[in-house]
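User:
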Amino acid sequence: MLPYPQIDPVALAIGPLKIHWYGLMYLIGIGSAWWLASRRLSRFEPSWNNEKLSDLVFWTAMGVILGGRLGYVLFYDLAAYVANPLLIFEVWKGGMSFHGGLLGVMLATWWFGKRNGKSFFELMDFIAPFVPIGLGAGRIGNFINAELWGKASDVPWAMIFPTDPAQLPRHPSQLYQFALEGVALFLILWVYSRKPRPTMAVSGLFALCYGIFRFIVEFVRVPDAQLGYLAFGWLTMGQVLCMPMILGGLGLMVWAYRRQPQPA
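Assistant: Predicted structure:
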């Protein structure tokens, strides 16, 4: 068993002002993705400058934050937020949904593309390789918050999380997700997108791989207490939400290569 590193969730406190690591992880993820996107901008659209990219980053970041929070409320704990709507603003405590954030990004991307002469999938293919950076950073934030831990286990790297009432050694599922959704997914998409691909193919690969990685990790991750397992004694809300991603991602890739077998 490995000892859980006791990290204060508050990175910096100045009087009543508290800056949490969870929030900083979002800033690190967005900032790193922004920097990498600027290095590929000329390949994507030579006429765009950094100001145009800044606008795109701003609107997609709003989609991540607003969509992620609203997605968690709707998908995972609607009753609690209906009972106390002010809980919606307590984002430093966690409670963000990837699937809600993805829907927010898709909506922001569609709106931005309409205003700037780019199709939805042109922009999504450009954005997709940078998304795992934010995902990985967010999972580190979950780990520091000692939330979303895994099932009890006797693996050598199991940890006892301070927020676990049972104080059992558990899978550090946040780190599994960091490795798969963050590191592995970034490498897959970064290498794949280095060469011209048919429109929709990069977006399809992102949806397919993320859906598979998340579906797998859900087997060792404890489901949200207020939901539990939805069916069969193992099916979680995360897996339910990943099923259309896996099918949709595979469908996008097949469609992309049938429409455009050889990239322009």
